[in-house]
Each structure stands twice: as structure tokens, then as C-alpha cells.
């Protein structure tokens, strides 16, 4: 198995990054929050999880080990595959997932596309004893006003949008930021606003 990948970021798409390792470009499926932290040409180290299927080998990349751990753990619940697990870590922080499961918070889990009421209840039932406790720190997406603006802007530029369009998209989602902005959610909203334009 491949535990992590370190190399130059050769390309970024809406849902993946290509990292050059020893002359080989490895495509890593990543969440928008992880992609927002990467820059084409920069060196990156990403924890990874490899999913082996009969017809494919897929490598998933993560912002940190905590996100990777939650991704792998939620897949042990019945009905949760890698795509749904990736959606979970894209929408909720690792602590958010732990808190939702520990406190039987079905509503929070149903915010994830693909998880309904029964699916959320099943995940809680199957993982409650294994998920662990939240670290108590604020979620990685909670940052000061200028910091979230910079991160969303850089994420959009890293995905190939020009600075002017990125500025407009940041302004378009500024009203959604609130007191504790979630960079992942704001980046997704900015991408939606650009796709409508």
C-alpha cells in the first residue's frame, strides 16, 4: 500500500491532483478543501489511501492523517464506499464526523450528499464505539475573515481560474461565511457561483 506521496504538483483538476513522484505522475482523488491547499509546481506531501477494485486502482489524497483515518474508518460501515467516504470528509471535518457520530447527530450526517436518514442512523450505530472522541480543537475550516478569503481565492486560482474571476467568486460567497467560516463549504459555493456565470 502507498501510505503517502511527496513530489511536485504537476496538475490540478476539480476533483484530483497529479503529483510527480520519481518521474511518474500519480493522480490522487482529493476533496476541494485539500485541493485548495495545493499549488501547481509546488512540492506537496499528502497522506494517501489506495482502494483496489477488480477493474481499478484508485489513490485518494488527504490534507492530513486525521482526514485519512476518518476516510478509512467510515468505509467500515455497511453501505459506505470510497466515494461516499470522500464526500463525508469533504463536507465535515474529522472532528465534525466524530462529534456527529458520538452525539447521535443524524441531521449533521444527512448534510452529506448521498446520506439519508437511515444511512446516517446505520453509520452512527456501526461506528459509535470505534470513532473515538473529537480533539476539541476548532475545525480546520474555521479561520479568520481574511484567511478564508485568501484560501478560497488561492484554491480557485490553483484550479485554473484567473484572479479577477476568483475575486468575484469570493465576494459572491462572502455572505455565507458567518462567524466561523468553513473554507471547504465556501470553496464549493464559489465553484458553484463560477459555474453559473
UniProtKB/TrEMBL annotation:
InterPro entries: DNA_helicase_Holl-junc_RuvA_I, Hlx-hairpin-Hlx_DNA-bd_motif, RuvA, RuvA_C. Keywords: Cytoplasm, DNA damage, DNA recombination, DNA repair, DNA-binding. Transmembrane segments: none annotated. Its main location: cytoplasm. SMART domains: HhH1. It holds the Pfam family RuvA_N. Residues 145-197 are annotated as: Domain III. It is found in: Cytoplasm. Residues 72-91, 107-126 form the Helix-hairpin-helix DNA-binding motif class domain. It comes from the Bacteria. The keyword DNA-binding applies. The keyword DNA-binding applies. Homotetramer. Forms an RuvA(8)-RuvB(12)-Holliday junction (HJ) complex. HJ DNA is sandwiched between 2 RuvA tetramers; dsDNA enters through RuvA and exits via RuvB. An RuvB hexamer assembles on each DNA strand where it exits the tetramer. Each RuvB hexamer is contacted by two RuvA subunits (via domain III) on 2 adjacent RuvB subunits; this complex drives branch migration. In the full resolvosome a probable DNA-RuvA(4)-RuvB(12)-RuvC(2) complex forms which resolves the HJ. The RuvA-RuvB-RuvC complex processes Holliday junction (HJ) DNA during genetic recombination and DNA repair, while the RuvA-RuvB complex plays an important role in the rescue of blocked DNA replication forks via replication fork reversal (RFR). RuvA specifically binds to HJ cruciform DNA, conferring on it an open structure. The RuvB hexamer acts as an ATP-dependent pump, pulling dsDNA into and through the RuvAB complex. HJ branch migration allows RuvC to scan DNA until it finds its consensus sequence, where it cleaves and resolves the cruciform DNA. Has three domains with a flexible linker between the domains II and III and assumes an 'L' shape. Domain III is highly mobile and contacts RuvB. Belongs to the RuvA family. This is Holliday junction branch migration complex subunit RuvA. The lineage of its organism: Bacteria, Bacillati, Actinomycetota, Actinomycetes, Propionibacteriales.
